[in-house]
Amino acid sequence: MTREKGRLMGTRFLAWAGLLALCGLASGFACARGVVVSNAHAAQYERVDLTFDLVAHWADPYDPDDVKVDVAMSTPGGGRLVVPAYLVSGASDHKSTWRASLSPRQVGTYRYQVEVLDGGKALEQHLAGTFDVAAGTGKGFLRVRDNWMLQFDNGELFRGVGENLAWEHRDHDDSKFFRTLNEDSRFNYDDMLGNLAANGGNFARVWMIYWNLPLDWQWVDNNARYRVSTSRFNESGIRRMDQLLALAEKNHVYLMLALDSHVGLMGEGWEHSVYNARNGGGAATPAEFFSSQAARKRYRDKLRYLVARWGYSTNIAAWEFFNEVDNAIYAHKEQPIPDELVTRWHREMSDYLKQLDPSGHIITTSISHREVAGLYDLPSIAINQRHIYKALNSIPTTLRQASAEHGKPFVIGEAADEWDWSQNFDDDSRGMIGHFKRQLWYGLFNPTPVLPMTWWWEYFDAKGMTPYFKGVQAINQRMLRDSEGRLQSVSVASSESRLTCFGVKAGKSTYVYLYNPTAVALTTRLELPGAAASAARRTAYDPEHQVNRDFAGGLDAVQLGPDQDLILILEPTH
To answer: Is the predicted pLDDT of residue 227 greater than 70, yes or no?
Structure first.
């Protein structure tokens, strides 16, 4: 008798002899019953959980080649959705509880059927039903509209204004000068997301790593809120991720979730990584993380769990595969990982994730400063991303050129005047703060759907900069309202070459950003195309004081003080 045949016969015997009373079935390898729909009359874009019991045989419930549980749905529009389910509790060959979660996008009646594969073989079960979805007030999921904007399912336009909140305070921070600040307990997601939202922020980028939201880290370090685990996925990381999404929903903040980092998989975390062959993961070296069939299979299993557990969330704006994958490539400079290998891995994983995720979340990944051949042109990666430090003036050019060249939106996922955590930022706090402000405006006035996100969130909060997001968001919302669904760059000619100038046409209005980087007052004559030059209503916005005032003067003598920026809003009479 083969091992596989014996396993199937054993499962059949259990179904007949041990589980007949539970399931009420006379045949089949396994059985399931009792679907509970959490919200049988849900509103559109609201979470619906389908929870049910079944009995099946598995060695690893997170491996779909072993046991795969899906809920297939017919949508009101006649389409088909397949929502992966995850194990809630229970053991192999005993009653186990599973759950599939989604936030339905269409109004009407959904018909569902639970589908179970055990070792690739379909298991007979009798779980089917319907639930109804009514029209609701939710916005839905974020989608790419164009190189400038995202858009919710309900049509509302969106541009992200926020920052990195990569992790919560750690037990022992490695900053030479700001260790005490960075270890401060007020830097937790409960407070940080609320503070960001209260000051106009609507977007944050967060990391999964062994000290923060450690999903596939059995080993954790430097954060007492998490616990070492022997489970396939870390229970304490799962619990905190649930809490984070609840906080994001409460505060109307949308998250870019970085699933892995070069620091973890390719750096000091490799020794403890579940992908390391010494830990049973199949990759003998960091390079083999990208090439090993076993490691890639394990990563696909992780993606399946992510989608099953949190794919319902409308507050996840984007899945980000890697933080700075080029730094992973050059983690061992004497033997870099080939670009082709990394790009092929991203193609496989992005295609798989796009097919797997019924909600269709945006997919991205990021580089630091070295491009990876072919990475920007992968069709399933919807947004390209890089990180820019110590190069403020390169941000506008990078956004314009990269989005045009690759035909998709481009985001600066990290930006600051300094990248080196061993430096004392207070030696040039004016430069740090100036960069914080300028990068936001440079992003707003150039093609990107998420404004450049600062790093060093603790430092800038301590410097009182979080309220600065209010003014940026105010202009952002006004620009979106005026846009009529389209933003485009317009040329602004200045007689004063030392000024930084950008223009955006939003519907019938024109917005002009001016910045004087010098230590002296400057006066300039501005030339704008078409109707903007003769606009009847002119408003000036002072970003430093976050106030509007009438702009009575003409465009032939616009004055800016030293280190001053100014926004002009030019509107038609009707």
So the answer is: yes
Q: Which CATH architecture has domain 162-482?
A: Alpha-Beta Barrel (3.20)
Type of residue at 246: A
Q: Which residue bears the tokens 């750096």?
A: 267
**CB-count burial class (<10 Å; 0-12, 13-18, 19+) for 317:** buried
Map 185-240 to HEC letters: CCCCHHHHHHHHHHCCCCEEEEECECCECCCCCCCCCCCCCCCCCCCCCCHHHHHH
Query: How far apart are alpha carbons 480 and 440 in whole angstroms?
Result: 16
Residue 264, sorted as left (phi over 0), alpha (psi -120 to 50) or beta, turns out to be: alpha
How many angstroms separate the CA atoms of 229 and 221, rounded? 12
Contact 55, 22 (CB under 8 A): yes
Domains of the chain by residue range = 3-134, 162-482, 487-571
The secondary structure of the chain in percent helix, strand, coil, rounded to multiples of 5, reads 30, 30, 40
pLDDT band at 137 (very low <50, low <70, confident <90, very high): very high
CB 530 within 8 A of CB 522: no
Task: Express each pLDDT in 171-195 by its tens digit.
Answer: 999 999 999 999 999 999 999 999 9
Contact 563, 529 (CB under 8 A): no
Identify the residue whose tokens are 């002119």: 538
Do the two domains 3-134 and 487-571 of this chain adopt the same fold?
A: yes
- Burial label for 283, CB within 10 Å (0-12, 13-18, 19+), is buried
Q: What is the pLDDT of residue 41?
A: 80
Q: Which residue has the tokens 């595969």?
A: 321
Encoding tokens for residue 401?
Answer: 């050129």
120 class by beta-carbon count within 10 Å (0-12 exposed, 13-18 middle, 19+ buried): exposed
User: Please, what sign has the CA dihedral across residues 36, 37, 41, 42?
Assistant: positive
* Topology given in CATH for the domain delimited by 3-134: Immunoglobulin-like (2.60.40)
Fill in the amino acid letter for 15: A
Structure confidence at residue 549 (pLDDT): 83
> pTM of the prediction?
0.94
**Average pLDDT score over residue span 35-47:** 91
Read off the pLDDT of each residue in 514-530 and give the average, rounded to a whole number.
95
Q: pLDDT band at residue 531, thresholds of 50, 70 and 90?
A: low
**pLDDT exceeds cutoff 50 at 462:** yes
Q: Tell me which DSSP letter residue 73 carries.
A: E
Tell me the mean pLDDT in the region 380-397: 98
Q: How confident is the model at residue 39 (pLDDT cuts 50, 70, 90)?
A: confident
Q: How far is CA 88 from CA 62, 126, 161, 302, in A?
A: 11, 20, 36, 16
CA distance linking residue 411 with residue 402, whole number of Å: 10
Q: Is the pLDDT of residue 119 over 90?
A: no
CATH architecture of 487-571: Sandwich (2.60)
Mean predicted confidence (pLDDT) in 468-497? 97
Q: What is the pLDDT of residue 33?
A: 59
Distances (CA, A) of 86 to 13, 247, 552: 25, 22, 62
- C-alpha–C-alpha distance, residues 46 and 41, integer Å: 10
